[in-house]
Amino acid sequence: MNIDIHDSWKPYLETEFAKSYFKDLISFVNSEYANNTCFPPENEIFNAFNHCKFEDVKVVIIGQDPYHGDGQANGLCFSVNEGMKHPPSLINIFKEIERDLGIPYPVSGNLTRWADQGVLLLNATLTVRAHEAGSHQKKGWELFTDFVIKSISENKNHVVFLLWGGYAKKKQKFIDSQKHQILTTGHPSPLSANRGFWFENKHFSKTNFLLEQVFEAPLKW
Q1: Considering only CA atoms, which of 100, 93, 83, 101 is closest in space to residue 63?
Q2: Hey, which bits of the chain come out as E strands?
Q3: Residues in contact with 80: Cβ distance below 8 Å, sequence separation at least 6, in sequence order
Q4: Which of the following is catalytic: 4, 24, 56, 65?
């Protein structure tokens, strides 16, 4: 696996690439991709960083694992490739946007359009074995992505962090709330949403309001 990551991130992350845990992680990932079907495709593992340059980061959304079904994952959390059926969490995200902003439910579940506007769609674990949820957890990815969150917190200002669900909320400890805005709510999964922990959170209008205070232009969700 090549560390195919946009140059804008390298000054902040290169120290991690040299650490022993990361070298072990790369060896593990290389072995997994050589011997099993894994997602996302190898050239899309760092898609979140390549579609959202460091200097462009305005919003961070934290997911947990890539989708493990065939043809779904594209390296952006909650996002699926063009033409793919929308997974349940993504359906609930789009329903909340529709309710919050009056935007019609979209045909495409590919969130590259968000990433290109400055939304870092960061999974805590960047790879997974096909049809085996969580199979690449606790191999080193979480150490790396925690460092990414800390680096953004330390080196940028006025980023909006959207922490959805218990797992994402644990990342709050890496974020300086004096410099950044943190919005929390339940996970968009049906289990959480159906218990009243997702809908009407208004995170999308709230995010746009916060961005307009600093950057003037809101996001096109």
Answers
A1: 93
A2: 38-39, 59-63, 119-123, 128-129, 160-164, 181-185
A3: 67, 72, 73, 74, 86, 87, 90, 109, 110
A4: 65
What is the mean pLDDT, run by run of 10 residues, along the chain of 221 residues? 90 95 97 97 97 98 96 97 96 97 97 98 98 96 98 97 95 97 95 83 97 90 97
Helices 10-17, 141-155: crossing angle, 10 deg rounding: 150
- Which residues neighbour 70 within 8 Å (Cβ) at sequence distance 6 or greater? 130
- 0.90 surpassed by pTM: yes
Q: Is the preceding omega at residue 87 within 30 degrees of 0, hence cis?
A: no
Contacts of 52 (CB under 8 A, 6+ apart): 115, 116, 118, 119, 120, 121
Inter-residue contact 98 to 205 (CB < 8 Å): no
Q: Which phi and psi angles does 69 have, rounded to 5°?
A: -85, 160
In the annotation, is 65 catalytic? yes
Q: And the tokens for 57?
A: 């980061």
**SS3 of 68, please?**
coil
> Of 19, 69, 73, 12, which Cα lies nearest the Cα of 47?
73
CB 147 within 8 A of CB 132: no
Inter-residue contact 77 to 122 (CB < 8 Å): yes
